[in-house]
Design brief:
Chain lengths: 273, 337, 348
């Protein structure tokens, strides 16, 4: 039991690191440019010499495209979680520390956003913003900050009555110094766990938006849009849709395994997935 | 009677929220880049400026936004949601014709999520640590980590392309003829006694329903498992057993109703998954519903359709939450609505 | 409440007999021997008290008798006989037809023992329905109302539809008792039935239990931590420590002349009665032993003022004690190396 408890999260972490490495080294690892059209070699199956994962409907090498696709997913995931964390934690700390109408306004707004289905909301946001990596990060963070806000607000509200905070206040330290110097270090574990668990979700979201054609621009290789392209060829060339989808599942599953392990080790109180 | 008044209060209480939402969407939808007139006329450029202006005027797009909004709201009171210049139909009619397909799909998904998720959760809780438990929890973990669009395609590949057990796209075998009554194909085929159509409609529901219900199923199984585990440890289970109640009866009659309360709450909170997910699933399975209409309308910059669909989504969401609250009050005697 | 100072005369064949019962519970720190070789006889219509601190195994003993040990619990040795049935060797199906019909059980906290989802009348009726003694629904319904009135629930027709949380603690306890009595059991196991209630209600519930014993001739096994309450209410008392019975005898004798140092300490830890020459309550020093690693010898020796090397090495067994030694099954027994020799006592 204890072996399994540590084994799966560590395996998850190892796989995630492999993905990150692959994304960084994609230009060196990929045998072909990701968008190289080679019509004579189109629709080649998995195991074709020179194309271990096959080719797509334009003859582009799927392995190369999957490697480059990792860049989009990881970049969007990391940036969207970071932005959500920064905005959510700051607003949450302010709302939780000061309370009153500041808290009222932010909390009401967060409740309102919470009521919306995430995908619906992000879809409309992307429709307004238009495709693009920066826009994806923005659209995902529009609602993504709410969870971090709620967590931070709750923790700050309970921490602020603790003795170490009261002592710091008695010493005349400013609220900003107390929040940043005293309270945040105490809740960083909870924030880290939440950030990890949200990361997988946001990567799925990015892939879904790209699948619907509302994510990255058409010329950028992303896993979601690769699956969308393969949809037309489910009968003749199923691997075009299968391979990038497996890449998503592998990454998200690994992140979630690692996140669950982290949650059990650091913050058992936080609700499971 | 008192319950009816409470329900009415809840419905009326949602009106300001819906109104705020309508206005917000109205403004935001007009922020979508790209001019509907350009899209409508094509990018050819062989159209005169006068023609463009005429079309713009006929669509009412030349007026200031607050005038457009006021006209829209006035129309709303009369049940007029505007006109789709993309589909060349009144929006209200478009929504009415696509909504049944979407609701039918959502109900199928809800059915699969509950019919599979609840028993799996119960069995896992009754024998924690068993092979079944570990298998179920691993599968549900996988289910949460899998994008729905890909899961749908893989189900389609396996059951429709390879095994040929189930149809892949659409709602009905095109060779069949079904007289529309309500728009719900399962109901229509039952009402008209059209058995081949019933068979076809049901088999078309399986794959998209499973895909849309997958995430909710995983969540239901997990919540059901943990709340059953908790309920089974309660004293009332021991007391029921001490009265002579059998083990399964204690599980199903005594633990289950109490364990359902948190499950209903979670299902209520996750209703959005069904609503948001249908765009993806309807796209994958070429399901002629609201979700596919909205995705198409966004690309076509069809303001009126997007606007009307958002309103419908929000109203459905409010209604679904209300239903969950009623069910919740019924399951939990300590609460009243 | 009448005190029962007269021991029941030579008892007939016991309705419930526990022989040398040992129960193991699997805990985080290993296997715990929660019940270690307990023997107990309950005659028809008798009231027996089982007394001890929390964690001494008295509740586990009741669960084992019912065949409802928690997951990880296992009977390692011993026998439980109820009116001729060998309960531990009975298949679950048959055991189920005995639970709630021949032997019933009530719990400490009625609010958690009643299912919040069902009206209380339904929960009483269920006890009748599962045993099928009254197959007709209308008849069951009538009997439930009668029973509710008999246990002292006013306006039963209205209370039938009430949910547990809508009733007071005392009424909840009466509902639970009614459900337990639904099929006229021979034995009622009561696990701290009054601990969760306040003093006046406590007395009412004890009165009700006494009436059940008197009018229905139901034998009662009362588990309690309150030695004095048990002394007033029971015919006989067994004191448990670390999973074992350390002293047993007629209630009056155990209370008035306790023989085991643990029983004596328990009595001193109670607030003094009026007129008693004792300054205040004296808590027992130390804490109960860790049952995952019980001390060698007498389990009480680490806390015992009389402990000697003998106590640290050899476990004492139950021996006749006191003036009525040898008076038969109802006699007074204790498990201590330092019992005065009955002969010597007679001389002095």
């Amino acid at each position: 039991m204890s072996l399994r408890r540590q084994f799966l999260p560590l395996l998850g972490l190892a796989v995630v690191l492999l993905y990150v490495l692959a994304a960084i080294l994609a230009p060196y690892l990929a045998p072909y440019p990701p968008d190289e059209v080679n019509l004579p070699m189109r629709l080649r199956p998995i195991g074709t010499p020179g194309h271990p994962l096959g080719t797509d409907h334009l003859g582009a090498d799927l392995l190369s495209r999957v490697l480059f696709g990792a860049r989009v997913s990881i970049l969007v995931g990391v940036l969207a979680v970071s932005l959500s964390l920064a905005v959510g934690a700051s607003l949450g700390a302010v709302a939780g520390y000061f309370g009153g109408w500041v808290d009222g306004v932010f909390s009401r707004f967060a409740d309102l956003l919470m009521g919306f289905p995430y995908l619906l909301f992000t879809l409309f946001a992307m429709a307004i913003l238009g495709p693009g990596i920066a826009n994806l990060v923005l659209a995902l963070s529009f609602k993504g900050w709410v969870e971090f806000f709620r967590l931070t607000r709750g923790e700050v509200m309970s921490e602020k009555t603790r003795e170490y905070v009261l002592a710091a206040r008695a010493l005349g330290r400013s609220p900003a110094a107390i929040i940043a110097g005293e309270i945040l270090p105490n809740i960083r574990h909870s924030l880290l766990v939440l950030a990890t668990l949200r990361m997988g979700y946001l990567i799925v979201m990015e892939a879904t938006l790209s699948f619907l054609g509302l994510g990255v621009p058409p010329d950028v290789p992303a896993w979601g849009s690769m699956v969308a392209a393969g949809r037309e060829y489910m009968v003749s060339a199923w691997w075009i849709a299968m391979v990038p989808g497996l890449a998503v599942v592998g990454l998200v599953l690994s992140i979630n395994l690692f996140g669950e392990g982290l949650r059990e080790a650091l913050d058992p109180r936080l609700r499971s997935l | 009677m008192r319950t009816a008044v409470r329900i009415l209060q809840r419905v009326l209480g949602a009106v300001p929220l819906l109104l705020a939402l309508v206005i917000a969407t109205f403004v935001f939808v007009r922020m979508i880049p790209g001019d509907p007139v350009d899209i409508l006329l094509g990018q050819g450029g062989n159209v005169s400026a006068a023609e463009v202006a005429a079309l713009r005027q006929s669509l009412g797009l030349d007026e200031p936004i607050q005038v457009q909004l006021a006209r829209f709201l006035r129309g709303l009171l009369e049940g007029d949601l505007g006109h789709s210049f993309w589909q060349r139909q009144p929006v209200a009619r478009l929504l009415v014709t696509t909504l049944p397909a979407t609701v039918e799909l959502a109900l199928a998904a809800l059915f699969f999520a509950l019919a599979i998720g609840i028993p799996v959760g119960i069995l896992s809780a009754v024998r924690p640590g068993s092979l079944l438990d570990r298998l179920a929890m691993a599968t549900s973990f996988l289910g949460i980590s899998m994008p729905a669009f890909w899961a749908g395609l893989m189900l389609m590949f396996l059951f429709a392309v390879k095994l040929r057990w189930l149809p892949s796209v659409g709602r009905l075998d095109p060779a069949l003829d079904l007289r529309p009554v309500t728009g719900f194909l399962v109901l229509d085929s039952l009402l008209t006694g059209n058995w081949p159509a019933l068979r076809s409609a049901l088999s078309h529901l399986v794959l998209p329903g499973l895909t849309l219900g997958l995430e909710l199923m995983a969540i239901v199984a997990r919540v059901m498992r943990s709340s059953m585990l908790e309920a089974l440890q309660q004293d009332y289970i021991r007391f029921a057993r001490a009265k002579g109640v059998s083990g399964w009866s204690a599980v199903l009659r005594h633990a289950l109703p109490n364990a359902l309360v948190p499950t209903v709450t979670v299902v209520g909170l996750q209703m959005g998954v069904l609503l948001g997910g249908n765009m993806v699933v309807e796209t994958v399975f070429a399901w002629p519903g609201l979700g596919r209409l909205v995705v198409g309308a966004i690309f076509a910059r069809d303001y009126a359709v997007v606007q009307g669909a958002v309103l419908l989504y929000a109203a459905t969401f409010v209604l679904a939450n209300l239903l969950v609250d009623i069910l919740y009050a019924y399951l939990n005697p300590k609460l009243s609505l | 409440m009448a005190a029962r100072h007269v021991p029941v005369p030579e008892a007939p064949a016991p309705v419930l007999e526990v022989r040398n019962l040992t129960v193991h519970l699997r805990a985080a720190r290993g296997v715990v021997r929660a019940v270690a070789g307990v023997s107990l006889r309950v005659a028809p219509g008798e009231v027996v008290g089982i007394i001890g601190e929390s964690g001494c195994g008295k509740s586990t003993l009741l669960s084992a008798i019912m065949g409802l040990l928690p997951p990880g619990g296992r009977v390692a040795a011993g026998e439980v006989r109820l009116a001729g049935w060998d309960l531990l060797r009975l298949p679950e199906r048959q055991l189920r037809s005995i639970r709630g019909r021949e032997v019933a059980m009530i719990f400490q906290d009625p609010l958690t023992a009643l299912n919040p989802f069902y009206p209380v009348g339904w929960q009483i009726e269920e006890a009748m329905r599962v045993h099928g003694l009254w197959p007709r629904r209308a008849e069951r319904r009538r009997r439930v109302l009668e029973l509710m009135a008999w246990v002292g629930i006013p306006d039963p027709a209205r209370r039938y539809h009430a949910y547990p949380h809508e009733l007071s603690g005392g009424m909840q306890q009466r509902v639970m008792i009614a459900a337990a009595l639904a099929n006229h059991p021979r034995v009622l196991l009561a696990d701290e039935p009054t601990t969760a209630l306040d003093a006046t209600v406590q007395a009412q519930i004890l009165d009700l239990l006494e009436r059940i014993n008197r009018e229905q001739r139901t034998a009662i096994v009362l588990v309690s931590h309150d030695l004095r309450l048990a002394g007033q209410f029971c015919h006989r008392i067994a004191v448990m420590y670390a999973g074992q019975v350390v002293e047993e005898g007629p209630a009056l004798q155990v209370i008035e002349s306790p023989r085991h140092p643990y029983t004596q300490a328990l009595l001193r830890s109670l607030p003094p009665l009026e007129g008693e020459r004792r300054a205040a309550l004296e808590p027992i020093p130390g804490s109960p032993p860790d049952l995952a690693a019980p001390p060698p010898g007498c389990p009480f020796h680490p806390r015992c003022p009389l402990a000697t090397d003998l106590c640290r090495q050899a476990a004492p067994t139950l021996r006749w004690a006191g003036a009525v030694a040898g008076a038969g099954r109802t006699g007074h027994r204790a498990a201590c190396h330092h019992l005065p020799d009955p002969a010597e006592e007679a001389i002095s």
